[in-house]
């Protein structure tokens, strides 16, 4: 077999989100976001106001450490750094008429640091950070008014960073709204009271907003590339029983349709049939169908786990918002997420066959409890062989997908530096190559320490993945 070979221009890097790393939740004119009232992640109840136990209020204080952190990313050899621009840092209430200059200046500074080291910024416009005011006053994306508020936000970003940011993502894990309407869509209506009609209408508003943002970006920033971002979780039939195969297909379609609309420019027939069965009638405004024809330039996605589907009773598996039946052939992480490197190759092949557009893996990583130990040189480190093994096996499958003929733009590992977990709001669930000394009780110095995986990933980037052939 031919050795794994990554393209010369392959974009190696890492990914973060503002709400999980920046902190400074009320500094320099920033307004509150939905994350500031979600101290326990996706499964906990939101609070009325920010509470001291919310780790995201300080997070890892990237807001004051960004220069040193980006310098560490550069030391690893990053070609690209994915981060989000907090909507409420720029428009504190979301529906403001003028932006907060100090918020814009912060991202000016972040981009300047990236430019200093030759790192391409990859900006997520909306990453689970709906301004709290938009959630409370409008019920988030349930309201069509959010389309205009979002496009106003986009307009400001595109005008400010034109020529400095080439790669953009419209919404993070847009399909996650099916499972977490508050975090993903800023919808305050509780899940048990949210009708299918209202949920899919909110989804329609997001899809129209995404398409209009693509058009706006192409008009304002010729040469810019705009992608959608999907939570990818391949679903296998638990058995060869045709009923299980069909159940897996139907589950996949619920996620596929988000990519189908954004990559193809229209609602697929299988979705329209499903909505009819559910009694859901999307209220299309004049121009919506035309707007959806503004398709994305590339498909980006997160990948952590796969799942199984069956029509019989099953043992459930944990996962990145989505779940399913437990796969008896796979091992699990400490948080019960089943580890399936081959599933990444499956996703890459399926998405490329389906869309024939470049793909970008913008999240992949292992959340684990890390132990900080002396490094014998007067400092500290983490011996995270488990993380290296996880990432090595996944990157080998990326290399195999390249051999399959898949067009892959790049790979940004999730949580290239430790940050607050979206699902559990914990810091002890660490993903990074860089350890941040902060604990779930709020203690810690915020000092940064390089883990063993820091040097491993540095070598992967330096050799453009050639070293994976030796390890595989």
TrEMBL record:
Q: Give an example GO cellular component term for this record.
A: cytosol
Which Enzyme Commission number(s) are on file for it? 3.2.1.-
Keyword Magnesium listed: no
Per UniProt, the keywords (alphabetical) are: Glycosidase, Hydrolase
Q: Does the keyword Cytoplasm apply?
A: no
Q: One of this protein's GO BP terms?
A: carbohydrate catabolic process
Top EC class of this enzyme: hydrolase
- GO molecular function ontology, one term from the record: beta-glucosidase activity
State the superkingdom.
Bacteria
Q: What positions constitute the catalytic site?
A: 363
Database matches in InterPro entries: GH, GH_1_N_CS, Glyco_hydro_1, Glyco_hydro_1_AS
Task: Please state which protein family the record places this protein in.
Answer: Belongs to the glycosyl hydrolase 1 family.
Name the UniProt record assigns to this protein: Glycoside hydrolase family 1 protein
Q: What organism is recorded for this protein?
A: Faecalibacterium taiwanense
